[in-house]
Please model this.
Amino acid sequence: MDANTYKGYISILKEELLPAMGCTEPISVAYASALAREVLGTMPERVEISVSGNILKNVKSVIVPNTGGLKGVCAAAAAGISAGNSEKKLQVLEGISDETRKNISKILETCKFTVSHAQNGCVFDIGIKEFAGNDSAFVRIEGHHTNVVTVEKNGRQLVCNDCYEECKLTDRSILNVSDIVTFACEADIADIEDVISRQIEYNSAIAEEGLKNDYGARVGKILLSSYSDDVHIRARATAAAGSDARMNGCSLPVVIVSGSGNQGMTASLPVIVYAKHLNAPREKLLRAVALSDLITIHLKTGIGRLSAYCGAVSAGAGAGAGICYLYGGGAEEISRTVVNALAIDSGLICDGAKSSCAAKISSAVDAGLTGMKMCRMGSEFHGGDGILESGVEKTIDNVCDIARIGMRETDEEIIRLMIKSLN
Model:
C-alpha cells in the first residue's frame, strides 16, 4: 500500500468513528435547534422545522435521550433548544439535569412548533427557524449530520457553506476489499489504536447496559435467554442489545460508522465477542475491528448515508469479514465472506430508527456469520447467482446500485406511509 493510500485509510477511520449520544438523526435536529437558539440569543416563541423524508423516517419512532422518553422531531428540537450545547455536536444532549429535562416538556407546551416535509431532492436536509418577538434565527444542515450549510439571523447570512461536508472528506473511492485487508494486516497499530479502542470501550458499555436492563423489545436479552450459550448467539445478542438500549433512550454514547450508531455497534460488537471467544491478542482485535469498519464504510459509500436499504446489512457483512480475519482468513476468504453475506440479507428495508432495529441487526450479524462459516467450510455463493457477479467489487457495485437506485421508489413509499400515519 502506497503512503498516500495508507494516510487516506487512517483519515477515513478518524472521520467516520465519531462519538454520538442517541440516534444520530434526532441528535442532528437537536444540534441544529441548539445552534439556532444560540444565534437567536433567547428562548424562541415559535419554531418552524423543515426536514427531508429520510430525517422524518429516522426521528419519528425513536426515543430522544435525556428527554424522559419523548419521541419525534418536535421533541428533538425542544431538547436542543432547552439544553443543547452546539459545541458538542453529536453529543449535544449530553449531561442534561433532571430540572432541565422538565423544561423540555414545558417548551413543547408553550412554544408553537410546526413541521413540514422538505421535498427539494436532498435526502439529508434539516432546516430550523426560531422566532422571538421581531427576531429570528435560521440554521440548515444538509448532506450529513453536522454539515451546517446556512446560519442566518434576522435574514442576514452569517454562514454560507456551499460545499457539502462529504466534499471535504477523504475520497472514499480509494477503498477496496484487497487494500482494506492489506491495511488491517500491516497498519502501524499506533495509528489506529486510539480511535478503535474508543469504539470498543463505548460500544461494549452500551451493549452491557442493554443486556442488563429492559430496553425496548429486549431483543438481545431474549436471544440470550432463548438459545444455548453459543458464541454465534452471543455475537448477535450483544449487537442487538446495544441497539435495544440506544433506540430506547439510553444516554450512553456510541462510536458511529457511516453516520450511524447502529452500524458502528454492528461492525464492532460481534468482532469483540469472537475475539474474546478465541482469546485473540489485543492487537489482532484492533486490526479486526478496523477491517470490519472499513468494509462497512466501503459498502455504504455507494449507497449513501440514508436510503431504503438497512445499513445494518453492510455492517453485518463487515463484522463477518472481521471475524473471518480473526480466524486467519486473508483477502480471498474475506472477499468470499462479504459476497456470501450480501447474497443472504441484501434488500432488508430501512423503515426508520426504532426498537425493531435491534432485530434487524441480529439478522444482519447472522448473515455475516453464516457467510463466514460457509467460507470456512469451503462453501460459497457464485457469480451469476442472482445479483452476484464474479469478484467482490462487482457484487458490491450491484448491491449499491440496487440500494441507491432500485430502492428509490421503495424509500418514497416508506416515507409516504410514515407521513400518512402522522395525520
User: Anything to note?
Assistant: The radius of gyration is 21 Å. Confidence is low (pLDDT under 50) at residues 163-167. Residues 100 and 364 are 38 Å apart (CA to CA).
